[in-house]
Structure formats: structure tokens, C-alpha cells
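Side project, low priority. Logging it here so it doesn't get lost.
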Amino acid sequence: MSLSDREQKLLDQMERALASEDPKFASALRGSVRMPKASANLGPSVLVAVAGVAALIASVVMNVPLLGILGFVAIVIALYLGFSAGVTGLKNIQSSGPTEPKSPQGFIQGFEQRWDRRQENQ
């Protein structure tokens, strides 16, 4: 579903405002919109897992144990491929994000410092 002209203009205006207020945050958001290539493997994995579940159900209904075994194997393979794609995608997202030097300070102190920097820039 595409955006109307008015909605597109509002979105562009919001993007420009965000980029002017906090350029680092805006650039981080621009980088996170892209989906990693590994997530493309999730779709077929889900389909194979659903087919495996259907084969398991059919094997119970038709009393065919070989079909149940094949369904179980399909589910295991699909889960393995899906999780490995997810882990690879997560590694890609983490490695492509902006890297900031880690400080020995606590979590809250980092937020406080960023808040102070933003207040100084205004």
C-alpha cells in the first residue's frame, strides 16, 4: 500500500527534522531499515516447516509412519536453516551498526551524557 502525496510530504518533513535534530540517530535508523540477505532464507524455511507439520498430521490420519518420519525430518531441517539464517542476519545487523567506543560507565550514565550533549547542542 503506497502513501498518498500528503503522507509522503509529511514523512519527508519528519525525516528532515529528525536528521537536523540528531544526525547520528537518523543515520543509524537509515542503516537499520535494510533487511539482511540471510532473512531471505526464513520464508522457505517456514514453508518447509509448515509442510512438515502437515505431513506429520497426514501420517497420523492415514496411519503411514514413513510420512511422519519425513515430516519430522523436514521440520528439523527447516528449523535448523531458519535459526542459522536468523543468527547470520543478527550478526550482520550487529556488525553493520554504528560503533561507538565503550565506556566503563554504567548504562544510565551513558543516557545522561547523551541527554546533556543534546541539551548543549540546542
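Brief comment: Residues 36-97 form one domain.
Revisit when time allows.
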